[in-house]
Amino acid sequence: DSGVTQTPKHLITATGQRVTLRCSPRSGDLSVYWYQQSLDQGLQFLIHYYNGEERAKGNILERFSAQQFPDLHSELNLSSLELGDSALYFCASRGMAGELFFGEGSRLTVL
Amino acid sequence: QKEVEQDPGPLSVPEGAIVSLNCTYSNSAFQYFMWYRQYSRKGPELLMYTYSSGNKEDGRFTAQVDKSSKYISLFIRDSQPSDSATYLCAMSAPGGGADGLTFGKGTHLIIQP
User: Fold this and answer.
1) CA-to-CA distance for A35 and A41, rounded, in angstroms?
2) Which of A16, A19, A71, B98 is most buried, taking the most CB atoms under 10 A from its CB?
3) Residues B74, B47: contact at Cβ < 8 Å?
């Protein structure tokens, strides 16, 4: 168990809809990283928050947004969903040596 | 050229064999190298962490880094069916923590009983 918690584990929705994924980092960790994993693209970095502030953006679409709250949990919002958004979405928190500890992921299926 | 190249496999070997998994990279600034194991539909789990060049051993696992060749390896001795998973290499540069890690696409490993 990495200590990183993600909900929901699996969700199925329709194109054009909006969903919210939730992540709680390990106890004491201030950072949250979001990654998208699809079969053909591997793990793609989306966005990083540290102590409530956005620190870096990767390949995140404009239809996607995220925030980190004062209690350090983070939410990733995905809107105007397309079939191609179907993927596993992981969050991770960062250890002292720069390693990442991942949650179990949220599997999104867009029909 | 992708920053990190990793053969996707699948790589199928008999139980008990020594497994060699590899990644090449192009960014000479990378100094921190990691290997993750990911079971189907689960989150990546950190296996090994090395800094700069050299070897590191942990039980049946050995990680090697050759910075001059921009090449890293993970060796698994006495492989077990429970080692069947996807193995991802990951790396980062000093001060590169804001962008997280750069991952290979993963090698799917199958250990045949």
Assistant:
1) 11
2) A19
3) yes
Question: How far B92 CA lies from chain A's nearest CA (Å)?
Answer: 8
pLDDT tens digit sequence for A27-43: 999 999 999 998 777 89
Nearest-CA distance from A79 to chain B in Å?
23
Which tens digit of pLDDT belongs to each residue from A98-110?
Answer: 899 999 999 999 9
Nearest CA in chain B to A54: B98
Residues sharing a CB contact under 8 Å with residue B25, sequence separation 6 or more, in sequence order: B3, B4, B5, B70, B71, B72, B91, B102
Q: How far apart are CA B70 and CA B26, in angstroms?
A: 7
Closest CA to B84 of B110, B64, B108, B105: B110
A91 close to A103: Cβ distance less than 8 angstroms? yes
Using CA coordinates, name the residue in chain A closest to B106.
A42
B103 touches chain A (CB under 8 A): yes
CB B37 within 8 A of CB B19: no
Token digits for B48?
Answer: 């090994």
